[in-house]
Amino acid sequence: MVQGLSVGTLTISGNGAFHGSTSSWRRHFKLVKKTYLGIDGQCLWEQCVQNLHLRGKPNRLRQRNLRVEAGWLFKGGDQGLDSSSERSEAANEDILIFFFQLDLATRVQCALNMEQYDVAQQLRNKLTEVETEINRQKEAKRGLSSKNEAQDKAISVIRLRADLQSAIQSENYALAAELRDQISKLEAESLAASAKALVFETAQYAFRLGQKVKHKIFGYQAVICGMDPVCCESSSWMDTAQVDKLPRGSNQPFYQALVDMHADPNLLVAYVPEDNLIAPEQPDTGRFDHPYVSFLFYGMDTAGDFIPIKQLREKYNRPRHEVPMDPEDEEPK
Fold this sequence. Notes:
Elements: E1 11-12, E2 18-19, H1 23-28, E3 35-39, E4 42-46, H2 58-62, H3 66-75, H4 89-113, H5 117-142, H6 144-169, H7 173-201, E5 212-215, E6 221-228, H8 235-240, E7 254-259, E8 269-273, E9 277-278, H9 293-296, E10 297-300, E11 306-308, H10 310-316
Antiparallel strand pairs: 1-2, 3-4, 5-6, 5-9, 6-7, 7-8, 10-11
């Protein structure tokens, strides 16, 4: 269960499995600017969200499963790409921060249950800091700040138009020309900000949280655990992934996808465009292994997809998915 997990006890080995000791985590990953706050023998990661970075060993990340690599020769070789081109440290970090938030909330409730109110207050203060930073990042990413920016620029345009009218009336044409240029620039910026905000508000997704999907090019199986209406990665990442060569480019939904560890034990989390994903034709209730599944989902439904926890659905403002009932499974009356 999610409540039984602790950040301090999670480790990930090279093959993606969880272990109870922190030694292998420290060998393979480094958490930057991490400090500890001792509370009754337990450790709390006292850090700002922006200071959390994961750095994998390059030699370990470059290792590839031979069976999967052979598949790339036929499926993706003509594009000069392999599945590592869609690996996203930003997506992986986003998931770990989400887990950190869940863990803090659990610790707060545990401290309250044990009537450790001072400890609960310290944890709640840290949780508030984390949630504030997460909300700030979400607003910037999902266009809420763009909407406010567009409104601010629209107000500035109104003021500049009044100044322009005054300059024309006073026959100060040099100032009027300068103000006209400023107005044109602000109007263009306001339109771009409004468009970005609108994209996030009206986004339509072909896939849902917890759904099993298959990569069209690389063939691996994955589970959706996050989504953006457009590509929110850096320009360097988009160059590596050759996003500009996609049919819809960067202006399409991109998904955080947990990659089956049997398909590629080193990829872990991919950031995949909608163009590159397909849903399986038949329900797949087979085995799917990934270390993040245990805290992002309740379990698997009858169709073989995973059921996202409530906090994950709230994060992306997605509705609960109900599996359609198969008439053949209904008991005769």
